[in-house]
Amino acid sequence: MNEEIQSNSLLKRNLSWVDLVMVLGGIICIYVILAFGTFWLMEHLPYERILMYLNAFLTQLAFALLIWTVKRIRHWEWADFGWSSVALRKAFPKIMGVYALTWVINISYAIFLYQHGLTPPDTDVYSKLLGQATWYTLILNLILAGGLAPVVEEILFRGIIFGSLQAYFGKWTSAVLSAAVFSALHFQAYGFFPRFMLGMFLVYLYDKYKSLYPAIALHALNNIVATLIAASLLY
């Protein structure tokens, strides 16, 4: 009976190829429009950091609008995106275990880069945002990276893209594709692999618990710790 209910729910929330192309096209259009708008403003306003924060917040808000548009067009309920209840207390050990594994991967990857003389570029937008150690920029970083981004991006990349790709591919093929899109759209070449692995772990939690809550918790934890570490190292 439970399998039948889950199957009916999956059929209800499947996107067509046209919908998937529209969603991915919408994401790309958001990045392109905001990037050109930010570059244009940088030529007229000497406030690079303010404009970077504006771009980051507008990106997440535009993603939220895209999600709302999908919801209206497809007539989905929020449960169709993965907003189903789960006992986080039961999921907590698994979340922490997966998070520990991300640290193993991140440290190993950092050592590999260091051994090959590779370091993040000084112009990297994430280094600029996360490296601002004043109290108000730290708060902005925590709101953006630890609050807004995990919720919006999990709905978009796990709830919509991964959840919908399963109509055409197997679970793990869909996981690889959605994680690759998730990582690629951060436009950070040197960080592609660890972010790809994070995307795979987020898919794992989402699929295991059939809920976005554990994935959001891991995403938020990862971003908050990264923000605090960057702030302390670059202070």
Walk me through the structure.
By secondary structure, the protein is mainly alpha-helical. It has one domain. It is built from 9 helices and no strands. It has helices spanning 2-13, 17-44, 48-74, 88-115, 125-130, 135-165, 171-184, 192-209, 213-233. Helix 6 runs antiparallel to helix 9 and helix 8 packs antiparallel against helix 9 (213-233). The longest helix has 31 residues, at 135-165. The radius of gyration is 18 Å and the shape is globular. The relative contact order is 0.13. The model is unreliable at 1-11 (pLDDT under 50).
- How does the helix and strand content classify structurally? mainly alpha
Please mark out the parts with pLDDT under 50 across 5 or more consecutive residues, or reply none: 1-11
Mean pLDDT: 84
The beta-strand count equals 0
N-to-C SSE string, H for helix and E for strand: HHHHHHHHH
Beta-strand proportion? under 5%
Helix fraction bin: over 70%
What is the domain total for the residues?
Answer: 1
Shape: globular
Radius of gyration: 18 Å
Distance between the termini: 56 Å
Continuous helix count: 9
- The protein's oligomeric status is single chain
Outline the biggest β-sheet.
none
Transmembrane segments: 20-40, 52-70, 91-113, 133-152, 172-193, 213-234
GO biological process, one term: CAAX-box protein maturation
GO molecular function, one term: endopeptidase activity
Domain CAAX prenyl protease 2/Lysostaphin resistance protein A-like: 137-225
